[in-house]
Amino acid sequence: MGNHVIYQASTMIALLSGMYDGSVTFGELKKHGDFGIGTFHQLDGEMIAFDGKFYHLYPDGSAQQVGMQESTPFSTVTFFEEEKTFQINRTLTRQQLEKVLDDLLDSPNIFHAIRIDGQFREVNTRTVPHQQKPYKPFIEVTKSQPSFHFPNTGGVIAGFWTPAFAQGIGVAGYHLHFINDERNGGGHVLDFIVDQCTISICSSEDFQLALPHDQEYLHANLEAPNLERDIMTAEGAY
Asked: Is 31:208 a contact under the CB 8 Å cutoff?
């Protein structure tokens, strides 16, 4: 198992509570990893990073490289070094592929960075829309989020397996983002069908959490009585 550090800016509970102001620049975030996922100041889309390149997946479905002066209210990164690879040469749904991943993970009780390079029959994504203050709760935002369909495309899925005990700090289970080979479209993964792919896994027993220190965060009520339901709703599982 690996000794890589997974670094996270803020928590999923804070995001669910409407804390969308960027607390860490991507220039700073990049010091902690070359691979990861996240979002942007005022929820202006989704982030995916791999091979040291960070991409901004916009609410209109387009994509371009991230400016290092941009900031994030919630992102997770690591320095990715593949420890295990696996080839898939048959058609699988997301649920079937996740069962393959379940068998590849060293343990469900540590963190894993996951990369999938593949040819996809289809990928369905969503991208959170840009918000203005006063911010609405995250589950309200996701009710009007735009969704996108990418048929017959090559691309990269990047993300993490987070252990169940860390639900609320992150998103327990698989949290995945996608960008196409043209690097001009993608988003948060809702579903996909893959025809062939290469899975790469990097495991970690070390997790570093950087909490915001502004007054809004310090005085926020972060109790989450409906945490499981709210995260499932936000992730598109409901």
From this structure: no
